[in-house]
Write a structure and sequence with these properties.
Length: 443
C-alpha cells in the first residue's frame, strides 16, 4: 500500500482520495481553501455526489485520509502526487492551465529525493505532460498522465468500475507503478505516452458531445418524418459499435467537461485540420436545443413577458448539484431575460441557485413551483420528476403546456392528465383533445 498525496479537493480529488483509501492506500489531500479542508476533515463534502459521504467517512474512520492546506505536510511522505486541480476554459476557448502550473511549482518546491511520481489527473491542453516534465528537468522525477473518466452523479461507481485506466508515461517503471495502485480494480489498462493519454480524455468527451448532438439532430428529423425518438435510440443503442450511452435527445449537454473539452478539440481541429466544422456543428446543435424551447414558448404565448414558466430541475443533469454550463439554468435565465416570471425547483441545488441567479423564484417542491404556471418545462431528468402526479401538476397550473425537455413521460399519460405535451421525441406540441372537462377526467 502506498502513501499518496492529492493536490486539489474538488469533484475529482475527493473521489480519488476516498476511493484510493478504500483500496488500502494512505492519502493526504492538499487544498488551498481552509474552509474546504475544515469541512472535509469533519466528513462534510461541499458538493453533492451519491455514495461519496459514506466512502469518505469510512476512510476518515480508518485514519487513511487526511486533509491539509500545507503542501509541506501533504507531500511529506508521498510516493505519488496526484494533481486534481481545475482547468477552466479561457475566453479564447482553450483550457486555462494556470492552476495546474501553480500546483506543479508548489510540488517542485515541497518535494525532495527520493522523488515522488507526479500523476496528472487534470484535463489539460494536449502536451502539458511534457511541459510539466520539463519543469522537473534534471531531477529524477517522472510525470505520468492518468486522465480521469468520472461522470458526476456516478463518480464513485465509475471509480470502482472504470471502463479503462489510461496511463501516459515516458518512463515504463513509473507508468507501471501508477497502474499498480489500481490493481484491485482489475480494469483494462492502456499504457501510452503522455500526449496520447491527454488527448484520449478530450477525445472521449468530444465524442460524447458529438453523440448527444447527433441524437438531438435525429430527434429533430424524427419529429418531421414521424419517427419515434425513443424507438430510434433503442434500435441504435443495441448495435455494439454504437452503444447505449449519450443517445438521449433533450435540452443538450452541459456540465464542466463536455462543452469545455469539445471547445478544446474544436480549437485543435481548427489549428491543425480543415475539419473544425464538425465540432463547431456539434456545439451549434447544442445551443439550438435550448433556443428551440424558448421559440416554442414564444410561439405559444406570443411573448413570454409576464408569463409564469415553471422550470423543474436546474442542474446540468440529475444526481449532481453542479450548475456549471447547465442547459436547464441557461434556459431559465434566458426566459427571465425575456421578462417571463420564472419559477424554479431543483432537488439539491437551491443554495447555489440563490446566489447565482437571484432573478429566479425558487420553490421547495415541484408542485409548489408549478402553481399558477402557464407552462412547465422539465429541464433535468431528476428521478422524482418521472414519478410526479401529472394530474396534480395540471390542476395546480394556470395553463396546460408541459414541455418534457428530458423525455421522462409518455404522451398518453400527459394527455390523460389534460396537458398539452411537447417532447423532443414527439412530433411538435401534441395538444390533448379533452372530450370532457378536467374535473370529470379527475374523478
Ligand atoms: C463526462 C464524461 O461522461 C466523463 O467520463 C468525464 O470524465 C467527464 O465528463 P459528466 O460531465 O459528469 O461526465 O456528464 P455526462 O453524464 O457525460 O453528461 C454530460 C451532458 O450530456 C449532461 O448535460 C447530460 O444531461 C447530457 N446528456 C447525456 C444528454 O443530453 N443525453 C444523453 O444521452 C447523455
Amino acid at each position: 500500500m502506498s502513501n499518496i498525496a492529492i493536490v486539489g479537493a474538488g469533484h475529482v480529488g475527493v473521489v480519488y482520495a476516498a476511493g484510493l483509501a478504500e483500496l488500502g492506500h494512505r492519502v493526504r489531500v492538499v487544498d488551498v481553501s481552509l474552509k474546504r479542508v475544515a469541512m472535509l476533515r469533519s466528513g462534510r463534502i461541499w458538493f453533492y455526489e451519491p455514495g461519496l459521504p459514506e466512502l469518505l467517512a469510512r476512510g476518515l474512520a480508518r485514519r487513511r485520509i487526511e486533509f491539509t492546506t500545507s503542501y509541506e505536510r501533504g507531500l511529506a511522505k508521498a510516493r505519488f502526487v496526484f494533481v486534481c486541480v481545475p482547468t477552466p476554459t479561457t475566453a479564447a476557448g482553450s483550457l486555462d492551465d494556470s492552476y495546474l502550473r501553480a500546483a506543479l511549482t508548489s510540488i517542485r518546491q515541497n518535494t525532495k529525493p527520493p522523488w515522488p511520481v507526479v500523476v496528472n489527473k487534470s484535463t489539460v491542453p494536449v502536451g502539458t505532460g511534457d511541459v510539466a516534465a520539463r519543469l522537473f528537468e534534471g531531477e529524477d522525477m517522472h510525470v505520468v498522465s492518468n486522465p480521469e473518466f468520472l461522470a458526476e452523479g456516478r463518480a464513485v461507481e465509475d471509480f470502482f468500475h472504470p471502463s479503462r485506466i489510461v496511463i501516459g508515461s515516458r518512463n515504463r517503471i513509473a507508468g507501471e507503478a501508477v497502474a499498480a495502485l489500481y490493481a484491485p480494480l482489475r480494469a483494462p489498462v492502456v499504457h501510452t505516452d503522455p500526449v496520447t493519454a491527454e488527448f484520449s480524455k478530450l477525445a472521449a468527451n468530444a465524442f460524447l458531445a458529438t453523440k448527444v448532438s447527433f441524437a438531438n439532430v435525429l430527434s429533430r428529423i424524427g419529429e418531421s418524418v414521424g419517427a419515434d425518438g425513443d424507438g430510434l435510440a433503442k434500435a441504435l443503442s443495441l448495435d455494439p459499435r454504437i452503444g447505449a450511452g449519450h443517445l438521449r435527445a433533450g435540452l443538450g449537454f452541459g456540465g464542466s467537461c463536455l462543452p469545455k473539452d469539445l471547445a478544446a478539440v474544436e480549437q485543435l481541429a481548427r489549428r491543425y485540420t480543415e475539419s473544425s466544422g464538425l465540432f463547431a456543428a456539434v456545439a451549434a446543435v447544442n445551443r439550438a436545443q435550448r433556443a428551440r424551447i424558448v421559440d416554442l414558448l414564444v410561439d405559444r404565448f406570443g411573448t413570454v413577458q409576464d408569463r409564469r414558466i415553471a422550470i423543474l430541475g436546474a442542474t446540468f443533469k440529475a444526481n449532481t448539484d453542479d450548475l456549471r454550463d447547465s442547459p436547464a439554468l441557461g434556459l431559465a435565465c434566458q426566459l427571465a431575460e425575456l421578462h417571463a416570471s420564472v419559477n424554479v425547483y431543483d432537488p439539491v441545488a437551491a443554495p447555489q441557485l440563490r446566489a447565482l441567479a437571484p432573478q429566479l423564484v425558487l420553490f421547495r417542491s415541484a408542485l409548489a413551483a408549478v402553481r399558477g404556471a402557464d407552462a412547465v418545462v422539465v429541464a433535468t431528468e431528476w428521478p422524482e420528476f418521472a414519478t410526479i402526479d401529472l394530474l396534480a401538476v395540471r390542476r395546480a397550473m394556470r395553463g396546460s403546456l408541459l414541455v418534457d425537455a428530458r423525455g421522462l413521460f409518455d404522451v398518453e399519460a400527459a394527455h390523460r392528465a389534460g396537458l398539452d405535451y411537447f417532447s423532443f421525441s414527439t412530433a411538435g406540441v401534441r395538444p390533448h383533445e379533452a372530450e370532457e372537462p378536467l374535473e370529470a377526467v379527475a374523478s
